[in-house]
């Protein structure tokens, strides 16, 4: 990934399953317009929870996209990942190329909560009927590794596989992990994260997070960087990318949509938002260093935007710490205020937005957010046209992980 | 072959393959290909384990541990029906 190295990692495919769109183009259209799809949670069994607003993926029909043999043994979070992986491979023009060289394609996903809905169903059988009524697929469906395993099995990929479980920011770490696999010689890596945390069991697990927004009004539930910040709204969905060696992508005349230029991650402790300032700044410096990128080269920042005043302040200050005076001038955005945070899926969706923002020369706004109370140039209300060559994507997790990823605009279709 | 009511038929096995593992197979085809390995129908070992568990619950008794290791529909039905019709 080093900007000084000879090998670069190309992003050649994007696949999205998000609350505001079941494909990358629909997602981008909604993100660019600054639409918000946050709504009252409607999932069965969740109505009585103090968690009132969420970003639900609606209208997703897994049976139209995935074979029944895979559906019966997987949770919704894997259904999202399988669908997004298909879309990313198709976007990359690699839908059917694994058969001739299966060991050249690897799979990496990040996961933060696993298959809660599947797990709850089987655990209810355990306590309601007894252990003999628990299906054997419980042994694989709810684990963090399920999506990586099922993508690779379904597509016949036999290259290096991995699962990154490093909190929400692990979504960015997974992309870095994939880029390292490409550097080590794997031709293509399918990398991403999708989550499905809106089942009753999963919902209850999140209630202990002090950062969770319990506001019942969708317009007020997730407003980072404002005095009204009251936490974050959880969401379903995520995104999958196809990354590959840049030279290989050029040889096969692929459309290089972006390149992964630099990444770094730090850890500063659960809910220690004051400390995340230093951790995030250190991650930004590390990512810039790896990318060989000066602070002034960053044209847009996709913020973590936790929505907790202390966390928002730490992020704004981290930008100033790491980017200097440029930190208060660079446009910052957080499209996730319109869709919620799908945990590890959230930074992947931000990457997809960043790639498309660079392609279209448009910085998407931060839906529902105005009256910024921090010293950053947050893009609000409407998209802002800009020449975008380099994007910085930031992510933090509730358990204390911080990560930064630098993306460069792709050269576009092969010359 | 015995006509004991507890016997598992090819039709029932086909329905179980669908229910437990999402494998769609026509009972007549399953009958024709009764020596074909389960894997060729798309049934993996966890799927067969699920079928064994379902049958154990339906019949209220344990099946031989070898049941989940059977390679073909015929081997599976022979073993399971042998156990169901002879075991008390």
UniProtKB/TrEMBL annotation, chain A:
Gene3D superfamilies: 3.40.47.10
Biological processes annotated in GO: fatty acid biosynthetic process
Record bears the keyword Transferase: yes
UniProt family annotation: Belongs to the thiolase-like superfamily. Beta-ketoacyl-ACP synthases family.
GO molecular function, one term: 3-oxoacyl-[acyl-carrier-protein] synthase activity
Tree of life domain: Bacteria
PROSITE patterns for this protein: KS3_2
Keyword Cytoplasm: no
Keywords attached to this entry: Acyltransferase, Transferase
Protein name, UniProt field: Polyketide beta-ketoacyl synthase
Ketosynthase family 3 (KS3) domain segment(s): 6-409
From TrEMBL, chain B:
PROSITE patterns registered for this protein in UniProt: CARRIER, PHOSPHOPANTETHEINE
Alphabetized UniProt keyword annotations: Phosphopantetheine, Phosphoprotein
Carrier domain boundaries: 7-88
Residue runs in coiled coils: none
Protein name: Curamycin polyketide synthase
């Amino acid at each position: 990934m080093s900007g000084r190295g000879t090998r670069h990692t190309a992003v050649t495919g994007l696949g999205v399953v998000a609350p505001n769109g079941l494909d990358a183009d629909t997602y981008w259209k909604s993100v660019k317009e600054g639409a918000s799809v946050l709504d009252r949670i409607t999932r069965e069994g969740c109505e009585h929870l103090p968690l009132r607003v969420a970003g639900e993926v609606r209208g997703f029909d897994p049976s139209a996209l995935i074979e029944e043999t895979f559906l019966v043994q997987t949770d919704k979070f894997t259904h999202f990942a399988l669908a997004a992986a298909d879309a990313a491979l198709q976007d990359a023009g690699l839908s059917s190329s694994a058969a001739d060289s299966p060991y050249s394609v690897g799979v990496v996903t990040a996961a933060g909560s696993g298959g809660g809905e599947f797990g709850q169903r089987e655990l209810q059988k355990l306590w309601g009927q007894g252990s003999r009524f628990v299906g054997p697929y419980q042994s694989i469906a709810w684990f963090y590794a399920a999506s990586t395993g099922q993508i690779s099995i379904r597509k016949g990929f036999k290259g290096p596989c991995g699962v990154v479980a490093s909190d929400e920011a692990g979504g960015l770490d997974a992309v870095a992990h994939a880029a390292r696999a490409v550097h080590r010689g794997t031709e293509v890596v399918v990398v991403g994260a999708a989550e499905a945390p809106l089942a009753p069991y999963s919902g209850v697990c999140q209630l202990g997070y002090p950062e969770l927004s319990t506001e019942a009004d969708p317009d007020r539930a997730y407003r980072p960087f404002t005095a009204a910040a009251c936490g974050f709204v959880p969401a379903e969905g995520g995104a999958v990318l196809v990354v590959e060696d840049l030279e290989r992508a050029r040889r096969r005349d692929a459309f290089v949509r972006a390149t992964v230029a630099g990444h770094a991650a730090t850890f500063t402790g659960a809910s220690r938002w004051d400390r995340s300032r230093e951790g995030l700044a250190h991650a930004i410096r590390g990512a810039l260093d790896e990318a060989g990128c000066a602070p002034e080269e960053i044209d847009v920042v996709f913020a973590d935007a936790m929505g907790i005043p202390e966390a928002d302040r730490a992020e704004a200050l981290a930008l100033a710490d790491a980017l200097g005076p440029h930190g208060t001038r660079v446009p910052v955005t957080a499209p996730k205020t319109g869709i919620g945070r799908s945990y590890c899926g959230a930074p992947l969706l931000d990457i997809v937005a960043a790639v498309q923002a660079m392609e279209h020369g448009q910085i998407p706004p931060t839906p529902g957010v105005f009256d910024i109370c921090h010293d950053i140039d947050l893009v609000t209300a409407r998209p802002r046209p800009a020449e975008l060559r380099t994007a910085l994507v930031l992510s933090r997790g509730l358990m204390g992980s911080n990560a930064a990823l630098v993306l460069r605009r792709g050269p576009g279709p092969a010359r | 072959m015995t006509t004991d009511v507890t016997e598992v038929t090819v039709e029932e096995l086909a329905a179980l393959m669908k229910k437990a593992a999402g494998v769609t197979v026509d009972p007549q085809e399953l009958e024709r290909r009764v020596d074909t390995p389960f894997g060729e129908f798309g049934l993996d070992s966890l799927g067969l384990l699920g079928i064994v568990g379902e049958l154990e619950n339906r019949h209220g008794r344990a099946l031989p541990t070898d049941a989940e290791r059977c390679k073909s529909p015929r081997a599976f039905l022979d073993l399971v029906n042998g156990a169901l019709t002879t075991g008390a």
